[in-house]
Structure formats: structure tokens, C-alpha cells
Amino acid sequence: MTEKFQKLLSILKDMQSVVLAFSGGVDSTFLLKAVKESGIHCLAVTACSETMPANELHFATDMARLIGIKHRVITTCELDNPDFVKNTMNRCFYCKDELFSKLCGIADTEGYSFVIDGSNADDLADWRPGRQAAEKYGVRSPLVEAGLSKIEIRELSKDRDLPTWSKPASPCLSSRFPYGEKITKEALKRVELSEEFLKSLGFSELRVRSHNDTARIEVKTDEIDRLFNKELRDAVKDKLKKFGFKYIILDLEGFRSGSLNE
Question: What is the pLDDT of residue 144?
């Protein structure tokens, strides 16, 4: 891993100056730390929209401040694009197209050499339409170029005392909707509120999947039994109905990333 990290630093130093698409997740935070160690000029940019939970935006701001890199929050408008709202299988392309077009504009206007993102080597094996947008705009992925996997990034993050080393994955809220279900501002908000409520109850890793007026709850398998407690179950049911869901169901397979791709 040391060799890969040195390769990453070398890649970054060759770039000289970058605009980083910064979400505050495991990968982009580690990359931001590596950028700091490389000494190159960097602007970290976080996109704010209805698809990003408010707490994630605050967290990204805190991480940029902790690492000590110039940070900017911009607004993206995915919901203005009818192709995104229709939620087809290439939905992520339209989201990243919106983001990367704005980041490239910043780089061109302010004199940065490259736009980079936090994609890692494992992402190449997954369904990632957003990669097509990265290729369209010439966005580089230094973690991919260095051959760093998610596990390696977590270990290197732990070595550098980054609080994100054990942070659960937090993809954008639009990933909670099965392809073909229209994405609206109201639907995104009820998913966000529902997940925040479950987190407030102590569930560590979870998703609230939207199926029109039905909420399908995924929690870790060793936490499923908690929801069989009547008092807790009633509290979850009442709160999620208040947020706008009509039916509340529990997925007995438990939490798993990408379950809607099944």
C-alpha cells in the first residue's frame, strides 16, 4: 500500500493544480488528504442539491476545514433535468454531467489544470454511468490510476487519523428509488427525514428505499430484531407515515448496497 500511496502522490504532483469533486465520503476525503500531502494547489468543491442530505454537506465542510484545503459549496440542479427526474438506468450520468460541467467551468475560469474525483479501483467493476460523464469532461480519478481499492483507502485513512476511515457509504438520495420511479423534491425529502429518524434511534447502517408510497427499510441483519419491539416499531411506523409514506415494510434480508439493482 505504501508503494501505491507514493504513486498517488506522484500522480497528483504531476497535475500541479486541481479542482476536486468533494463529497466528504471515504474516498474523496482520503484523496483530499493526499492532495494536501502532495502540496499542489487545490480547490475542493461540494455540490449542494436536494439529492444530498444536509448532514452530509455539513460533514464535508468540516472535513475540508480539518484537512486545511480551500473549500467551496456550489448548487447543482439535477431536478431541472427531465432525463434525471425520469430515473432511467443511466440516471447517474445526468447527475455527474451537471456536476462535472460546473467543475470544469470553475477550473477553466480560475486556472486549475485538472478536475479530479474520488472514484476508486473497485468502482470499475460496478455499474457506474457517472464514469461516462467523467470521460466526457476529461475528469481524472487519481485513486483509480494508483490502483487503490476501498479497503486499502480505509486502511490508509485510519493510518492518517481521518474520521472517515470507518464511515459507512452514503450515496446520493436518488439511489433509494428503483429505476423508473420518478424522482421529486418531496420524495427525496421524505427519504432523507426517514433515514435521519432511524439513525437517531441508533441504527448504524441503513437505507429507506422508496417504492412509490411504500418505504422499504433495510438495517443491518444483527439489528433487525430491534424492529420487532412493538413500541419501537410503532414509533417508526408513525413517524414515516407522518413524512408521507403510506405503507412501511421491513426487508428481512437486511442492509445491502445496491439492492435496487437486483
Answer: 96
Name the 3-class secondary structure at 59. Answer: helix
Which among 17, 21, 8 is positioned nearest to 160, based on CA atoms?
Answer: 8
Residue spans in the chain of domains classed CATH 3.40.50.620:
2-166
CA angle 84, 195, 126 (to 5 degrees): 50
**CA 11 distance to own-chain centroid:** 24
Nearest to 45 by CA among 17, 21, 70: 21
Per-residue model confidence (pLDDT) at position 3: 92
- The top-level CATH class assigned to 184-253 is alpha beta
Q: What residue has cell string 421529486?
A: 184
CB neighbour class for 180 (10 Å; exposed up to 12, middle 13-18, buried from 19): exposed
Cα angle vertex 152, ends 147, 156, to 5°? 115
At 244, the amino acid letter reads G
Residues of the chain below pLDDT 70: 1, 126-127, 258-262
Percentage of the chain exceeding pLDDT 90: 88
pLDDT tens column, 246-258: 999 999 999 987 6
Burial class (CB in 10 A: 0-12, 13-18, 19+), 240: buried
Beta strands 41-48 and 206-211: pairing type? unpaired
- Second CATH level (architecture) for the domain 2-166: 3-Layer(aba) Sandwich (3.40)
Query: How high is the pLDDT of residue 204?
Result: 84
Give the three cell numbers for residue 168: 459507512
